[in-house]
Amino acid sequence: MTRTPTRPRLRSVATGAAALLIGLAAGTAQPGSARADDDEWIPPVTHQLTQEECGDCHMAFQPGFLPARSWLAMMNGLADHFGDDATIAPEKADEILVYLMANAGDAQPSGLAREYMRYVREDGVPLRITENPAFLDEHDFRPSVWERPEVVTKSNCLACHKDAERGYYDDD
Ligand code: HEC
Ligand code: HEC
After folding, report:
1. 162 in contact with ligand 1, CB cutoff 6 A
2. Ligand 1 atom closest to 154 (CA)
3. Which residue has the least CA distance to atom 1 on ligand 1?
4. How far is CA 2 from the centre of its chain?
């Protein structure tokens, strides 16, 4: 299948910029705090089809970051997915939707997923993880940070979180 994303493939610019992360996090790290306990982890994508189809243009985001109704809305709108055509064959899309909804933040709220769900209104259907107040709170950087060539966009989690795909965001 040929895709023509309107933006650069994010994975190709991800450099695992540990230095960047350390620089930004200076002063906020808490040495001695428990690492990778449940509160700081979100279950990674374990469904191969989702990994393949939704990890093509960007990292396959963990379903726990959004409620089930958001995934439903997103999968119903793939023809205009943030300006890209991310259409998938219907039977594949159905399988992915089932996986995303079963593992959504409101289906199995624990750890980071619970933290993110706290900010989603009962009738809210957010399509972006990066607009959740929990995200904004942790990423209150000056605009120039997001414009760095190795970052490009807020949704490029891997640029700063080298273990993002495994569900770990508490780098130190
Ligand atoms: C053709 C490329 C492409 C494919 C395939 C694709 N996406 Fe995206 N996705 C994008 C683009 C472009 C954005 C917007 C990125 C930005 O603004 O930084 C995006 C953004 C997102 C966001 C919001 C990220 C944020 O800012 O919080 C989610 C969630 C998402 N995609 C989920 C999916 C899912 C689920 C699939 C698989 C069904 C998928 N994507 C497949 C291109 C794609
Ligand atoms: C420009 C670099 C950058 C990008 C891009 C970025 N983050 Fe972060 N993120 C940070 C820094 C710095 C922190 C705060 C230091 C820390 O806790 O490691 C942080 C903290 C977090 C935390 C809190 C970790 C905890 O357990 O307290 C989460 C969750 C998180 N980011 C998720 C994401 C997700 C999801 C994405 C992509 C949609 C993303 N980040 C993109 C730099 C970034």
Report:
1. no
2. 18
3. 86
4. 24
Query: Which range marks the domain in which residue 69 is found?
Result: 46-120+127-166
- Please give the model's pTM, rounded to 2 decimal places: 0.87
- Cα–Cα distance measured from residue 143 to residue 95, given in angstroms and rounded to the nearest whole number: 38
The answer to whether residue 135 is domain-embedded is yes
Q: What is the pLDDT of residues 45-91, one digit of tens each?
A: 999 999 999 999 999 999 999 999 999 999 999 999 999 999 999 99
Q: How many domains in the chain?
A: 1
- Residue 147 placed within a domain: yes
pLDDT of residue 5: 44
Q: Is the dihedral of CA 113, 119, 122, 128 positive or negative?
A: negative
- The residue written with tokens 């209104």 in the block is 121
